[in-house]
Amino acid sequence: MAEVTLENVKKIYGRNPEVLAVKDVSLHIQDREFFVFLGPSGCGKTTTLRMIAGLEEISGGTIYFDKKTVNDLTPQKRNVSMAFENYALYPTLSVWENIAFPLKIRKWNNDTIRKKMEWVAGALQIGDILHKKPFELSGGQQQRVSLARAIVREAEVFLFDEPLSHLDMKQRQLMRAEIKRINKDLQNTMIYVTHDQKEAMALADRIAVMNDGKLQQVGTPFEIYENPVNEFVAGFIGEPPMNFLNCQILRLNDFFELILKKQVIAKIHQSRLPNQELFPQFVRVGIRPKRIQITNSENKKDALQAAVIVYESIGEKGILKVQLLGEPIYLITEPNQKFSKGENIHLSFPIQYLFFFNPETGERINLK
Ligand code: ADP
Ligand code: MG
């Protein structure tokens, strides 16, 4: 069991040109935590994980396991166990041997190995393929075997790099639940990399969102969703994603009006602005699809007209795409509503659900 701390960790690949893959990342992963690195492809997740594992030299900063610096320790010395997207199974060994191999090397006795194998075969549902060779397995099965091989070991820290990427959606959902349960059973620190925000939200105790080599925010799934620190995080979490509108701000008496293409979409009382002088003249206004209200005909006066582009009912909810003053906007609706293409509807944007971002820096502007 271990805490993992990164202090200004940096990675530069190559020379001429240098690739600054990870930029001064500092964070603290607690003992037994399920910690997820989340971000788009190329943002530096794998590099960060490989530096924690000791597979990649770090170009700057310090990594600690508990209070011990591990910068110069090999992966073996760090006692980490890993499963990667590319499963790297031994082609000549059976599934059983592939999984048991690391245990045999560690001189575990046969009884312990058998018990552990039974447990892992059950947990990852691979009992019926233990005798097979890797080439006889589907991509998804290979990935489960690779995962099994990683978790049968006893390690200070378990590291997973997109370990479910080759599974189909249904299998992935099942495996997610399994991994969560395994984490509870093993009570070990787990660090997990994914580009899939749903997977991150489902698994993580806390998430570190990365973009372009930089740490954007660390928080619980709830904090990241409800309280994103910038436009990138706000837009990356949630499906369909948060809507963003470029608005101008005009003062009218005690209110600041948010203007989208000459129409007022909402009004903020001046007392809610943190610093009126510094509040920019233009803002990016964000609102989640589920927070936009479709108003009935009686209070159409303050509402904005939008035209339906496409409506999709997916059982438990509906997803509606509309055109509002030339901008495409997504809404989530009740499942039993019906909309047809071209139909005009009326929307309102409740002020308590609006997010504001500085259009230049992307930083969140909080209201009081
Ligand atoms: P992610 O896992 O988030 O997709 P990576 O950590 O693999 O991102 O990559 C981060 C950046 O570093 C990317 O720009 C990638 O092209 C670059 N990169 C990764 N590995 C190497 C390498 N061995 N040599 C040079 N550049 C690399
Ligand atoms: Mg990667």
Keywords:
6-stranded mixed sheet; 6-stranded antiparallel sheet; globular; binds adenosine-5'-diphosphate; alpha+beta; OB fold (Dihydrolipoamide Acetyltransferase, E2P); binds magnesium ion; Rossmann fold; 368 residues; single chain; 9 helices
Strands of the biggest beta sheet: in what spatial order? 6-7-8-3-9-10
Counted beta strands: 21
Indicate the CATH topology of the largest domain: Rossmann fold
The run of helices and strands is: EEEHEEHEHHHEHEHEEHHEEEEEEEEEEE
Biggest sheet record: 6 strands, mixed
> Which architecture of the largest domain per CATH?
3-Layer(aba) Sandwich
Bound molecules: adenosine-5'-diphosphate, magnesium ion
CATH class of the largest domain, please? Alpha Beta
Extract low-pLDDT stretches. none
Strand content: 25-35%
User: What would the principal axes of the Cα set say about the shape?
Assistant: globular
The number of distinct structural domains comes to 2
What is the helix content? 10-25%
How confident is the prediction overall: mean pLDDT?
A: 92
Give Rg in angstroms: 25 Å
State the helix count: 9
End-to-end separation in angstroms reads: 42 Å
Give the CATH superfamily of the largest domain.
Answer: P-loop containing nucleotide triphosphate hydrolases
- What structural class do you assign from the helix and strand content? alpha+beta
